Amino acid sequence: MVMPGEFRVFLRMNGCVESIVEHMSWAMECECVERTGGGGWERIVPSMGVVREIVEGDEEARRIVEDMLFPGLKERKGEEEGGTNMEPLNAEPYTVGWKVIKCMTSVEGKLKRAASELAWAVTGGDPKKFVRGTGFGNAVHLLGIKGIVNTPKHDDGKDKGQKGQ
């Protein structure tokens, strides 16, 4: 998906970014929290793609969405520098950011990847900020895909002279 830069600015200037995030939040509520929808992830992934496309091309829109998903992340930046960051800093239940993190741990691969890429774009591609916002356990999958952390390779027993079953 490629969105013209002028359209991103148009959406931001007319308050549409917030509306798109609210729609995405509603879809996540139905599918990831209440589980009332059938195949609702198919509604969520396009919304996440649109929001990601907007924030990747418009810094001001990125800040707006960051404040909606990870409120207070900037203020708490130095607070957890020495901590383990295993848990997200601002993941109050039922907030938009909490729902995105919930989708990041979904068993549905497309939803998991879309949510992770959205959080990555919203945090400006900064690995430390991404981990602070989502927690290391939630972030490690995408960090491994991006080659930022080494994830263990699958061991099927063949390397040790054992026969696979």
UniProtKB/TrEMBL annotation:
It comes from the Eukaryota. The keyword Chaperone applies. It holds the Pfam family Ric8. One of its GO terms (molecular function) is guanyl-nucleotide exchange factor activity. One of its GO terms (biological process) is G protein-coupled receptor signaling pathway. Coiled coil: none annotated. GO terms for cellular component: cytoplasm. The keyword Chaperone applies. Keywords: Chaperone, Guanine-nucleotide releasing factor. Signal peptide: none annotated. Belongs to the synembryn family. This is Uncharacterized protein.
